[in-house]
Amino acid sequence: MKLVLDLLIGDAQSDRVVPPTGIAARLTVFVAGAMAFLAVLAVALTLTAARVADAWANELAQAATLRLPVGADDALVIAALNLLETTPGIASARVLSDAEQAALLAPWLGADIGLDELPVPRLIAIVAEDQGYDAAGLRARLTGEMPTAVLDDHGRWRAPLVQAASRVRLVGWFSFLLIVAAMAAMIVLAAHASLAAHAQVIRVLRLVGARDVYIARAFVRRFTLRTGLGAIGGVIIGLLALELLPDADTAGGFLANVGFEGAGWLWPLVIPLLAAIVGFVATRAAAMARLRDQT
Amino acid sequence: MIELDNVSYGYRGQPLFSQLSLELAPGSFHFLTGPSGAGKTTLLRLCYADLQAQQGQVRLFGKDATRLDRDAVALTRRRIGVVHQDCQFLDHLSVAENIALPLTVSGRVAEAAANLSELLNWVGLAEQAHQLPQELSGGERQRAALARAVIMSPDFIIADEPTGNVDWEMSQRLMTLLTELNRMGKTILIATHDLNLIRTIKSGVSARVLRLRGGLLDQAGAEL
User: Fold this and answer.
1) CB contact, 8 Å: A65 with chain B?
2) Which terminus of chain B, N or C, has less C-beta within 10 A?
3) What domains can be seen in chain B, in order of their start residue?
4) Tens digit of pLDDT for each residue in B5-63?
5) Which ipTM was obtained for this model?
6) Which of B:117-136 have CB within 8 Å of A?
7) DSSP letters for chain A
8) Contacts of A14 in chain B (CB under 8 A)
């Protein structure tokens, strides 16, 4: 806590001994802002992609389809519905209408298809209760009572979706780490440039008895604050950019939720803090290394 | 207080001096003279740990300088006031801030306010306190450098050609300030090639005059 207070309040006299840097200071603010902007986008896209994939996976986990053979009569459909309604864990089951089936085929066959001309099976949409149902048991019953019916619980689709979601998360967080590492590298370079530009100041400070930690502190405080302030600016611009993304009506629903939700809103607060910590650690390491090398 | 024992130093393989020995007792006053390039500044830099001896041993306040870590070097320098020929100011700070710099970097900022006004009066720079160093004349800069060197009340004061850029009157004034410090018990080592100045000051203070020439350090003789 004392360290944080020291950084925020500082020591005006100590700060005065190192003159304000020109280009290195502006570069640090710019780099921190740009990286924070990218970090906001990376985190927002990662969280959104993961959220969308989770929603898809959950919806599929709750849903299943019972496929009856082409030309199945109404008696078979009613028998199937009765069987499903008496199965524990199934919340509802209903036959898809012709219009719904046509809508499912429309992306591949066009909107004006006639279902009567196609060998289309009868489909019953099943919605499971939260605790789910015994799919293996239901399959066994179906095999005994109506062997032509096929239960599809979407397991084939769900597994790749979950895998894709974890990959998206992984790539997103890896991008975030790269952004943080790139920011640290740029700050180290800027700190080195600033220290090199102030070689004579450092020499004078040494001659009058300044310890390395004292000299480093003046640079570290300055770079930490600049990084933090730059990152706050970058986060604000990043949030504005997210607001400008297309909404549901213009982007088919997928981009509607790009951004932060719930606890995810902590990230815009965490990013400037993280940037300041990166600035502190990177500058301190750079300053101490440079001071060790510089006589 | 400061001991050099068989110290050697050179640049790019060329020895500047070798097996040089020197002991500065507390409260003593030494002039170091010799031709340009003889190694006077190098010898002084060894005395405030700005250089490390290539051979031999330098002991600062009883401690082997080669065994001092970076923090220890900084703490040792707080006990040594140095007046550089080119003054070495921070140009963005005022004269007063430059003079107070040793206290500032030592975290003794409160003391700076208390000591500064007295010190500025002592060196005659009270009116120039808020000016920038580049606005001062050569003599004023040297006096400011002297004030900065003594603000920590160091045990040992080193001055490298302190009168190199000032007129005769200002040289005498600076020397008077240094002899006052010696009377207060400070150890003084002044490098200068101005023999007239040495002759003038030597009469008023018990000073040893050392001559560095051809890599050898000896006591100056009859020419003084």
Assistant:
1) no
2) C
3) 1-79+193-218 (3.40.50.300)
4) 999 999 988 889 989 999 999 999 999 998 888 899 999 999 999 999 999 999 999 99
5) 0.87
6) none
7) -HHHHHHHH--HHHHHHSPPPSHHHHHHHHHHHHHHHHHHHHHHHHHHHHHHHHHHHHHHHHEEEEEEPTT--HHHHHHHHHHHHTSTTEEEEEEPPHHHHHHHHHHHH-TT--GGGS-PPEEEEEEE-TT---HHHHHHHHHHH-TT-EEE-SHHHHHHHHHHHHHHHHHHHHHHHHHHHHHHHHHHHHHHHHHHHTHHHHHHHHHTT--HHHHHHHHHHHHHHHHHHHHHHHHHHHHHHHHHS--HHHHTTGGGG-S--GGGGHHHHHHHHHHHHHHHHHHHHHHHHHHHH--
8) 104
